[in-house]
Amino acid sequence: MSIKPVSGPHVIAVRRVDEIMGLVIIALVPATAWGLLLFGFPALYLCSATIGSALLFEAMCLKMKGVEAAPFLRDRSAILTGLLVAMTLPPWAPWWIGVAGSAIAIVLGKQVYGGLGQNLFNPAMLARVALLISFPIEMTTWVNVNPLFFGPGPIDSLAITFGNAGADAVTGATTLGAVKTGFSNHLTLPGSLSDYNGFLSFIGWERGSFGETSSLLVLGGGLWLLYKRVIQWHGPVALLASIALLSTVFHWIDSSHYLGPWAHLNSGAIMLLAFFIATDYVTSPNTPAGQMLFGAGCGILIFIIRTWGGYPEGSGFAILLMNATTPLIDHYVRPRIYGRYRNGRPIDISQS
Amino acid sequence: MLSLFENPRLRGGIHAEEHKVETSGVPIAQGMPLPKRLYIPVQQHVGKPAEPLVKVGEKVLKGQLLAYSQGTISAPVHAPSSGLIADVLDYPAPHPSALPIRTIVIETDGLDEWVPLQIPVDPFELQPEEICMRVGAAGVVGLGGAVFPSAVKLDLGRKNQIHTLLINAGECEPYLTCDDRLMQERAADIVTGIRLMLRGMNAPAAIIGIEDNKQEAYDAMTVACAAYPEITVRQVPTRYPMGWDRQMLRYLTGWEIPADGRATDIGVVIHNVATAYAVFKAVCLAQPLISRVVTVSGGAVGKPQNVEVLIGSLMTEVLAYCDTDKAAISRLIMGGPMMGDALPRADVPVVKACNGILALAAEEIETPDVKPCIRCSTCVGACPVGLLPLEMASRIKANQLDAAVDLGLKDCINCGTCSYVCPSNIPLVHYFKYASGELYKRQQMEHKSEQTKRLVDDRNQRMERIRLQQEEEARKAAEARAERQRQQEAAKAAAAAAKATEATKVTEESL
Lengths: 352, 511
Ligand code: SF4
Ligand code: SF4
Description:
The complex is a heterodimer of chains A (about 350) and B (about 500).
Chain A: H1 17-65, H2 70-73, H3 77-87, H4 95-108, H5 123-134, H6 136-139, E1 142-143, H7 154-162, E2 171-172, H8 175-184, H9 189-192, H10 198-203, H11 215-227, H12 234-253, H13 261-266, H14 270-277, H15 288-308, H16 315-332
Antiparallel strand pairs in A: 1-2
Helix pairs in contact in A: 1-3, 1-4, 1-7, 1-11, 3-4, 3-5, 4-5, 5-16, 11-14, 12-14, 12-15, 15-16
Chain B: H1 21-24, E1 37-41, E2 51-52, E3 59-60, E4 65-68, E5 77-78, E6 83-92, E7 100-108, H2 128-137, H3 150-159, E8 164-169, H4 178-201, E9 205-211, H5 215-225, E10 231-236, H6 245-253, E11 268-272, H7 273-284, E12 291-297, E13 305-310, H8 315-321, E14 331-334, E15 341-343, E16 356-360, H9 378-382, H10 389-397, H11 401-406, H12 417-421, H13 428-510
Parallel strand pairs in B: 8-9, 8-11, 9-10, 12-16
Antiparallel strand pairs in B: 1-7, 2-4, 3-6, 4-5, 6-7, 12-13, 14-15, 14-16
The complex binds iron/sulfur cluster (2 copies).
């Protein structure tokens, strides 16, 4: 069917796809920059490898489909995916982890579904989860903070990312990892979190994936996107609120076993998930009510997986599970049409 | 985030780039030279076309009836100026298809001589029915673009005992300021028109809704209404499509019109503000609707302004009057840029429905390539009706029209908001218009096939009846034949018997 535009609207708004993607990338810049500062050149190399290969895979897939790649590469969605993948990786991960992540995200997560707008799962989350299952060692080797110019120089770093030197770095566990291992060693919560500092965690001075350690900066970027009206508040607020609520209740019941809301909200990828992943246009519901449902579902699942599951950093699972329910939510949660009840029946005259 | 604090009565909508300042500060131009020829289509309203009653060569005066209305929903048309009837022919309509329609051409004589007008001494002494009659006879139709015959609406209002008259002065389309200027300059007359409408409908109260980007108009109307407590002037947020009357009604009153109903069902009648002015002219001055204020704007127009234009003037002349650079016109639009129609040619007449002539330059309409839908749901949030444009479009793309209807396609008002905001530049409204057209065609086809079926059925029944009849006749004929035969046989037998008896007799006798 071909439609030849013959009638209105004859004017259009100015914000286009590439601009939206650009705004999201800009919103991620502070957190990324902080990550680079904390973890130095290896992180920079890893990030470049991820983004570069994401673009390459995107171009390859488009070529195989027989479409011109340039206009699609220019929409910046591949760059964004690459960046998101990088942000969820341990900063000193070897280059092939990054490239594999991009391959999973772009090829399996996006293009096999038909490209931009067609995928069921969030590509970056798919990559993270697949890597976590396939390469658990590499994916949970967290280096200590190793600021740029204080850590290895540009040349030595090449060896870390592209060679095999990563293992020498001083490593430790993330907050969530520490809690998990602590429990398996029959430690109580305060024992396994002896060196936890809520404030440092908030500003991001701690071990973790390179783009998500600073809740503050990710949150800032997210709020800016809200202000710019690129995203809506419904998903993030529902996600954060449900985690806060659950953790408060359980912490109140047994504070020696359950992390409090502050630690939960500051740890791992929560802010990134709330503002950048749960708000992913393609894989989240269309209506505000649907997005709230989706966000709350993510929050509940994250809490469950963190608290009772085997993967302390496995909040990606929660997102993927909820992604799978998105079509269902969209089917059942629809806006009310003017002049009709929710079930589609016209409203009664006396009602109006 | 801000949507948290938004009025629940206000849904969707956009703040489009306005382009109103170019024309909102300039007084309505009255001095457009009288065109040599006026082209008056006999159909300028919803309903049945009017029937011409003038002949070629006949002399007509300004305001004289040219074609009378036929049927219950129709409106007459009148001569915008005096002159000779030059032709009654099929002439291209101001429509995207430019299909020709029946048009009366007047060669003006330059005298602009009025027919004698029967001006009432005090219009407020007139009976309500009389007011409606005069409005109908003056050919007043909804000037907001819907062109529904106004008298029909007023009659409907009176019969349904409505309690509120909503005057739609939203004018939410970008570029358009004709209602704005009208209110600024002729507020008192508009208010008289509104009061006449109230009387014509026996209605107690009126609300005027004006978007808050028209402060001067609001002030002027407030002053003009000060003496009439039954009329309230209210400001509504500037948000397209606030001029969609159902949206405005919901915002101002919280009332919602049932999806399968009309405003009168809940006791409301809605008229455009320019219509109120036309009602004033029709009743107080006894002048039929022969001119209207038109916004002429767009990048190709040298002197953007509102012009009082005689119905039937060619757009080319109106554009020339406003110093338009013909070569710079990239798209010519009748109406506003959101819902208006792109015209393939400019030598078409201005009709009652024409509230704007926009000559847009290339940079105003540049359209980037269509990209795939990124499911950003911006269109969902922007739809004032509460539809899911992206879902409907994807169904239509897959040719599942019924699924699109299930999603609410028939509730879509084609406002274009979704297309406007779509970052992938997907022509959503075109999909909806296409689908509506297909559904209409299908309905026609069904109708036709049903009709054919009925005809065939009728014919079969007729044939069956004839066959039965023939059979019956044949049976009767056969019966008759049999009867005759039986009778004959009986007669024969009788004769034979008689003979036999005779013979016996004879025999007996002979014995
Ligand atoms: S606005 Fe356009 S891209 Fe966004 S969901 Fe709607 S149709 Fe898709
Ligand atoms: S054109 Fe239809 S679907 Fe699009 S915003 Fe307007 S009413 Fe909604």
